[in-house]
Design brief:
16 helices; alpha+beta; 5-stranded antiparallel beta sheet; globular; binds ligand 9MR
Length: 597
């Protein structure tokens, strides 16, 4: 078994850590050899760590001080060797663009063209063009009868969520917000725009608008189209958080809410390229969570496009205001209809979504009523955790921490301080983790790789706010883990490293089931080890009881609980890899950075 390390190598001057699994209790000597086999650095590993997450005894080898550059380096320790690797600049140059291109290739309602997708293999005709649907109606699995709605909506565009063809407002929201936040971070900190017009492989490249915004707009347009028309009254269960037989339905004014999702009536088989999907498309009832995702993203849209496309900005602001008002009128409508064919994205606590939406509307408008709502929220002063689709308060906090002139300076400084405190907690966990990742737990949840990426995003912001190098090292710990420094000796990112993930759970990138279909394009991150819901799929069920948490993963298209891919997981990959690829700030800028706090 080779020594585990990032399979794409290391940056000169960057942190360089490797992991040697070895039962020996004492530190182990290591040597770094150049391509001619001559030693260029040596040292001792850290003491042995009994690591519950990997189920191994591991030794940390830190060779950050090695100053040589080139390729063909080999690390040797305890009779084990690494694969040859590079120490070279620009290792992260291509990854942000590949990771962003995954969104282009996930677009609904438009043909995916070879010239933008990186080759003929990935081209395909448009799927769901148009994506028009009526509301679900009739009896669900619990015997409840849903009334439908008096219209159909054209919900074209947007990105397919994951391996399936569902498009969900909850999850679409965090994914597109993350891409837009990457743009806003650069804008607000005075850093170079990461994807200027013409830099990405997109049909819109060259249209005069930043390419990151072009990609994000595809999703925002879809989200706007999911808003319930004014004057619509619907019969929905109010205050119910779980499905059960005998739900009580109440008539509500649903104007301005957002439908939870548009998806297939039944699960399609694997593989099913989008253009071959023959299932009926259905609109699901509005939910408060979907409505607040729309309010938040549309408010973010309104301020970003204000000077770029005033009409679009105004449309977004109007949608955001109406959605927020609709959610306040209907604060307890949960997505609980018991129909098959798509994922749930259910949530029984909307307090964090309310905070997020109020924060976005306040950042955009500065209006006191939104400010009062966000200050009244328990999330305003709560500790920061990594965001996820169900827990979105941190998204609001990030917006307020970056918005230049909204919060009084002491409040903004306090928010930044809480982001830095979260990063400090993650670094504390890193000290306890065998593989030196900023997560010390043993519960590896569905999408665990994105938990780490979202922690990396907060550590990157902590670096932005303080300029302290340890946060940057923590970001590398996450990327190195994803790129091969893990007990599986796998890169979880397609196309990157010696042993990359190649068989994601996906209905089009399904080469292992049908050789006429393509493998995944490069830059796609796997959901990652899942030790918590192992029995969800057959591959996981076979592993249950036989895998240490970090080992509960297989590169198998059937393994949807471990090896699916999703827009809310690739978005933080775009964010974090872009951040790592950014040229380091000049000394002058980094002195200015000390004053940002
Ligand atoms: O990311 C979601 C995860 O947190 C849940 O535990 C899991 C089971 O409900 O669902 C995940 O989301 C899936 C969604 O429901 C449907 N599209 C694919 C998503 C990724 O697996």
């Amino acid at each position: 078994m080779p020594i585990r390390m990032s399979q794409i190598g290391f940056l000169p001057g960057g942190p360089k850590r490797a992991i040697l699994p070895d039962p020996a209790p004492a530190p182990i000597p290591w040597r770094l050899l150049d391509r001619a086999g001559a030693p260029v650095a040596s040292g001792m590993s850290g003491p042995a760590i009994d690591d519950a997450a990997s189920g191994e005894t591991v030794h940390v080898i830190d060779f950050s001080t090695a100053s040589a550059t080139g390729d063909g380096f080999v690390l040797e320790a305890g009779g084990a060797r690494s694969r040859p690797f590079a120490i070279a600049p620009n290792l992260f140059g291509r990854l942000p663009f590949d990771a962003l291109n995954i969104f282009y290739q996930s677009r609904a309602s438009t043909p995916i063209e070879a010239r933008y997708a990186g080759g003929d293999a990935w081209a395909r005709p448009a799927g769901h063009a148009p994506d028009r649907a009526a509301c679900i109606s009739g009896r669900d699995a619990d015997g409840n009868v849903w009334g439908g709605c008096p219209y159909t909506l054209d919900a074209s565009r947007g990105w397919y969520d994951a391996g399936d063809h569902g498009k969900y407002l909850v999850n679409g929201g965090i994914a597109v917000w993350t891409l837009l936040n990457l743009w806003e971070r650069a804008h607000s900190l005075g850093r170079p725009a990461p994807f200027p017009d013409g830099s990405a492989r997109l049909p819109e490249a060259g249209n005069g608008v930043d390419d990151l915004l072009d990609e994000a707009r595809w999703e925002v347009e879809f989200m706007l189209a999911m808003q319930v028309p004014a004057g619509t009254h619907l019969r929905l269960p109010v205050g119910e958080t779980r499905s059960r037989p005998g739900l009580r339905f109440t008539e509500i004014d649903a104007s301005g809410m957002a439908h939870h999702k548009i998806a297939d009536a039944r699960w399609t088989a694997l593989p099913t390229p989008p253009q071959d999907d023959r299932e009926t498309r259905l609109l699901y009832p509005p939910s408060t969570g979907a409505t607040l995702n729309l309010a938040a993203v549309a408010a973010q849209c309104a301020r970003i496009w204000r000077t770029i496309d005033a009409a679009f900005s105004a449309r977004c602001l109007d949608a955001a205001r109406r959605a927020y008002a609709a959610a306040k009128r209907n604060p307890e409508i949960h997505s609980i209809a018991a129909f098959t064919g798509s994922g749930g994205y259910g949530d029984d606590d909307f307090s964090d979504e309310f905070f997020w939406a109020a924060a976005e509307l306040y950042a955009t408008t500065g209006e006191p009523s939104y400010g009062e709502d966000l200050r009244a929220s328990r999330w305003f002063a709560a500790p920061i955790a990594e965001p996820e689709w169900r827990h979105t308060a941190t998204l609001g906090a990030m917006t307020l921490a970056l918005a230049p002139d909204r919060l009084p300076p002491p409040d903004r400084a306090a928010l930044r301080g809480r982001i830095v405190a979260a990063a400090d907690r993650f670094l504390g966990e890193q000290q306890q983790s065998g593989y030196r990742i900023p997560f010390a737990g043993t519960d590896y949840v569905w999408g665990s790789n994105a938990v780490l990426l979202n922690r990396a995003m907060l550590m990157a912001l902590a670096d932005d706010f303080t300029g302290e190098a340890r946060y940057r090292a923590g970001v590398f710990d996450v990327m190195d883990y994803l790129l091969g420094r893990n007990p599986l000796d796998r890169s979880f990112i397609s196309g990157y490293g010696a042993r990359p993930m190649a068989n994601p759970h996906h209905r089009f990138w399904a080469h292992s089931l049908d050789p006429r279909l393509p493998p995944p394009p490069p830059g796609l991150v796997s959901g990652g080890p899942n030790s918590v819901s192992l029995r969800a799929d057959a591959v996981g069920a076979a592993l249950a009881g036989h895998c240490a948490p970090q080992m509960c993963w297989r590169d198998d298209i059937r393994a949807f609980s471990m090896n699916e891919v999703a827009i809310n997981w690739n978005a933080p990959l775009v964010w974090v890899s872009t951040w790592l690829a950014e040229p380091p700030p000049t000394p002058l800028a980094s002195r200015a950075r000390q004053r940002i706090r």
